[in-house]
Amino acid sequence: MAGSGNAHLRPRDEVLLRVEDLVVEFPAGRAGRTVSAVAGVSFDLRRGETLGIVGESGCGKSSAARALVQLPPPRSGSVLLDGQELTALRGEALRRTRRRLQMIFQDPISSLNPRRRVRDIVGEGPRVWQLPGDRVDEVLEAVGLDPGTAAERRPHEFSGGQCQRISIARALILEPEVVICDEPVSALDVSVQAQILNLLEDLKARYRLTLVFIAHDLAVVKNVSDRVMVMYLGKVCELAPGGDLISRPAHPYTRALIASIPSSARPAETLITGEPPSPVDPPSGCRFRTRCPRATDRCSLEEPQIRQIGEDHWLACHNPAPNH
Ligand SMILES: Nc1ncnc2c1ncn2[C@@H]1O[C@H](COP(=O)(O)OP(=O)(O)OP(=O)(O)O)[C@@H](O)[C@H]1O
Ligand code: SF4
Ligand SMILES: [Mg+2]
């Protein structure tokens, strides 16, 4: 984590992707101003885990995810895949390495070319990458589609959930090690969401994938993730195994997210209201301080650094909740 030198790793965990001090900024319209979308985010992705990333709209989840695959590259920071620095790669070397990290997006229908047949959509990657053999039927079957009937159809003939299966097949055929799922079920009917989540779980085991799972809904993230990282306005607030995070949340923002889950036993006074501040002009010190019920003077003067508060439990807050 930021400033920790990633000391939060347990020795038995193999790091597949190490992210250090990731910064993503966008021009903000007026000359010289910037949107601070991701402001120094660090974490390790361990081989074989599912890391959930959660936080409200605009907190930088997608910007961070895209920076991992260098689309576009971050303003600064380091992204190491198996020890190889992705931010230093260019051209063919970057292209080749990028195949190992695939993304799945929220809106499957718009990400599929409507004029092409599923066989061509899914088979395009291997042609471009010159991968041997035709595995289209195998991956269609793996994502729960009947190759015999599905392959010759076009995207509009499928439901939203089936289109998401097609996008997953399109990613899977490139034999990625990491699949970054950016709100993969948010646009789907509730009845279909569980099917797609189960599918991702099955594929993870079958193809030995490592997953990053992004959502704004903690209730969804906690069920599918080994560890959960909570983000607020471009910063990491807390990172812990899902069970720990839910049972012993330390950051006031995490507590608010938990309190907003309908079945939560957390008291409603931990809820926060209103909109987050603009990332063009973020608050000094702790970025959460303008909405934090526990804020003190120190919070506006000094940015809280990530520190370890339990086994594999990390927190950035000067004044955490009393159960810690
Ligand atoms: N291409 C862009 N140009 C300018 N600003 C951008 C761009 N992409 C994202 N932003 C801004 O960066 C911030 C982070 O956006 P991002 O899409 O990463 O958030 P998010 O957590 O994925 O949100 P959501 O849950 O709505 O998908 C937001 O303030 C957003 O408006
Ligand atoms: S550092 Fe201060 S403002 Fe930020 S979350 Fe902790 S108590 Fe709240
Ligand atoms: Mg997003």
Question: Largest beta sheet, briefly?
Answer: 8 strands, mixed
Q: What is the beta-strand fraction?
A: 15-25%
Distinct ligand kinds: adenosine-5'-triphosphate, iron/sulfur cluster, magnesium ion
Strand order of the largest sheet: 6-7-8-3-9-10-12-11
CATH fold-level label:
Rossmann fold
Specify the number of helices: 11
Family: Belongs to the ABC transporter superfamily.
Keywords: ATP-binding, Nucleotide-binding, Transport
Domain ABC transporter: 17-258
InterPro entries: AAA+_ATPase (IPR003593), ABC_transp_ATP-bind (IPR050319), ABC_transporter-like_ATP-bd (IPR003439), ABC_transporter-like_CS (IPR017871), Oligopep_ABC_C (IPR013563), P-loop_NTPase (IPR027417)
Write up what this structure looks like.
- The protein has an eight-stranded mixed beta sheet, sandwiched between helices. It has a four-stranded antiparallel beta sheet with strand order 2-1-4-5, with helices on one face.
- Helix 4 packs across helix 6.
- The chain is built from eleven helices and twelve strands.
- Strand 11 and strand 12 (313-315) form a beta hairpin.
- The chain has a single domain (3-100, 176-315), classed as Rossmann fold.
- It is an alpha/beta fold.
- It is globular.
- Residues 1-9 have low confidence and may be disordered.
- The protein is 29% helix and 23% strand.
- Iron/sulfur cluster binds at residues 251-252, 286, 288-289, 292, 294-295, 299, 304, 317-319.
